[in-house]
């Protein structure tokens, strides 16, 4: 998928570093991009045959306890659109609290109801910016077949 290439490219631009954390990894290997001394991934459920050389932390964000208080890069790909409105502030606040650089992707302008698990569609740039206290340093809209995804890099506030 093209948007994962864009996410990996953003990670590469912000490495080398000491630590990277992928929130809602879902079995992807995004956490393996870049050059980092320590790698962590958070998922709600165990992932059989975890394919990455990264520590997999099982827990629900934002309640999960982390091994470090701050990470050079935090990624969160294709997760926020699944959250109800009332869960987004705490979810995003913890992302921003632990990340030097935050890289986020969400579906861009998918029609409401297209995915039964999405609670935020459609997401445009204004809605996306409204979730964060940080301003994106960059926002890209990536075409993946007939669908688009927004990939943003948010630095320190």
Automatic annotation (TrEMBL):
Q: Superkingdom, according to UniProt? A: Bacteria
Q: InterPro entries attached here?
A: SAM-dependent_MTases_sf
This chain belongs to which protein, by name?
A: Methyltransferase type 11
